[in-house]
């Protein structure tokens, strides 16, 4: 083999104001440089217990099965379907964006018959529409909803859908990839059975872990399956045996990521959930106001706009790709473009976790003033 001639790599420090990942606190980087230990070392097991305990607080749940899957948010989504769906099962999914659509793809790959409850991108799904579909399909195994639709910036209210699902056997699966740590995610109060998230958005750890919490109702459904879960890696019963009291080896834990998540969660606790939500809300409002001042129009439905992700329609005099490239290359600011049918039409500007700072808003508006003048 020839000698590798590539030099050191020095990625730039970017201000991450896209749809995720967000910036990471230096304490989290420091935590990651701790020594690697084994996956059954008592010290890593304590770290995992602490992660579970802190996640229960942030998910606002008492669910015993609360852990972090060793992969990104998409693995949380896959786990939420592959564990509960058996071929031919029906699922009802509210589809008002890119990630809700991905949910339908994941569910159908698991063999589910998917009922799509469609809504225009940029709008929340009316609870009554979801409930009507559930009434028509009382046998539905899962009702799937995205809390914060990162493709559109819309927040989906859960109270009524949750109350309906709690009355029957249908499991409510919630995608809180974008919202967890930046907005209330009331798993127990809303009656959510399975809720998954990601490490890299409002929790501000690096990408690579997917926190998930599972109700006892969902665990019962899982235990009463007639067929084996098709995925070994995402099998929640096996994961529970590793994260829970039995401590049975399942996979080699990414211990550096566990250190990182533990530290990031400690930072969330130091700030406190209420203060953190308020910070996201206040600065989200401020960003929206500033962007409107430039001539951008807010895309998401009023009253249901995410604080941590602002979607704006581009005025026709702003070049999407060129302007975002200048923001990145000249000002080190990352801003997201539109996904799917919204490509070239909207921007998605994030204020997540560590990146949710007034000085970042100042940097972005200052840079835009220079570029657009
Ligand atoms: C709402 C939502 N769900 C799922 C995902 C997939 O997560 P990941 O990219 O961490 O796999 C994302 C990613 O942006 C998301 O925003």
Task: Reconstruct the topology from this structure.
Blueprint lengths: L14 E3 L8 H7 L9 H18 L5 E5 L3 H10 L7 E6 L2 H12 L3 E6 L8 H10 L5 E5 L1 E2 L4 E2 L3 H9 L3 E5 L11 H4 L3 E3 L13 E5 L1 H8 L12 H8 L11 H17 L1 H21 L3 E2 L10 E5 L6 H12 L1 E5 L8 E5 L7 H15 L1
Parallel strand pairs: 1-13, 3-4, 3-5, 5-8, 8-9
Antiparallel strand pairs: 2-10, 6-7, 9-10, 11-12, 12-14, 13-14
Helix pairs in contact: 1-10, 2-10, 5-6, 12-13
Strand order of the largest sheet: 2-10-9-8-5-3-4
- CATH architectural arrangement of the largest domain: 3-Layer(aba) Sandwich
Number of helices: 13
Distance between the termini: 53 Å
Count of all domains = 2
- The tally of beta strands, per DSSP, is 14
Please bin the fraction of helical residues.
40-55%
The CATH topology of the largest domain is Aspartate Aminotransferase, domain 2
- What share of residues are in beta strands? 15-25%
CATH superfamily descriptor of the largest domain: Type I PLP-dependent aspartate aminotransferase-like (Major domain)
Query: How does the overall form come out from the CA principal axes?
Result: globular
**CATH class annotation of the largest domain:** Alpha Beta
Q: List the bound ligands.
A: pyridoxal-5'-phosphate
SSE class: alpha/beta
How would a crystallographer describe the biggest sheet? Answer: 7 strands, mixed
Taken in chain order, the helices and strands follow as: EHHEHEHEHEEEHEHEEHHHHEEHEEH
Estimated radius of gyration: 21 Å
Q: pLDDT average, as an integer?
A: 98
Point out poorly predicted stretches.
none
């Amino acid at each position: 083999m020839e000698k590798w001639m590539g030099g050191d790599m020095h990625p730039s420090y970017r201000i991450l104001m896209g749809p995720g990942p967000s910036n990471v606190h230096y304490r989290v980087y420091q935590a990651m440089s701790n020594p690697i230990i084994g996956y059954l070392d008592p010290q890593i097991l304590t770290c995992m217990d602490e992660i579970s305990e802190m996640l229960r607080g942030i998910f606002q749940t008492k669910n015993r099965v609360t852990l972090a899957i060793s992969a990104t948010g998409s693995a949380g989504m896959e786990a939420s379907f592959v564990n509960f769906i058996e071929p031919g099962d029906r699922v009802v999914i509210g589809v008002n964006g890119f990630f809700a659509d991905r949910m339908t793809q994941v569910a159908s790959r698991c063999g589910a018959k998917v009922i799509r409850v469609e809504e225009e991108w940029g709008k929340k799904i009316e609870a009554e529409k979801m409930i009507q579909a559930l009434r028509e399909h009382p046998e539905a195994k899962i009702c799937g909803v995205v809390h914060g639709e990162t493709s559109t910036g819309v927040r989906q209210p859960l109270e009524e859908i949750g109350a309906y699902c709690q009355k029957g056997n249908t499991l409510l699966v919630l995608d809180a990839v974008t919202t967890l740590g930046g907005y209330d995610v009331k798993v127990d109060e809303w009656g959510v059975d399975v809720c998954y998230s990601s490490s890299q958005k409002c929790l501000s750890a690096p990408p690579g872990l997917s926190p998930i919490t599972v109700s006892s109702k969902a665990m019962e459904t899982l235990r009463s399956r007639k067929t084996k879960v098709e995925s070994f890696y995402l099998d929640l019963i096996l994961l529970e045996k590793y994260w829970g009291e039995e401590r049975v080896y399942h996979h080699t834990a990414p211990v550096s990521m566990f250190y990182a998540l533990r530290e990031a969660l400690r930072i969330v606790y130091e700030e406190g959930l209420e203060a953190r939500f308020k910070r996201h809300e206040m600065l989200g409002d401020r960003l929206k106001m500033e962007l409107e001042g430039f001539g951008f129009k807010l895309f998401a439905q009023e009253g249901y706009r995410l604080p941590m992700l602002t979607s704006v329609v581009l005025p026709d005099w702003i070049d999407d790709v060129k302007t975002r490239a200048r923001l990145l290359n000249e000002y080190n600011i990352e801003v997201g473009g539109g996904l799917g049918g919204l490509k070239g039409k909207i921007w998605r500007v994030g204020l997540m976790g560590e990146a949710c700072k007034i000085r970042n808003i100042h940097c972005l508006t200052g840079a835009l003033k220079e570029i657009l003048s």
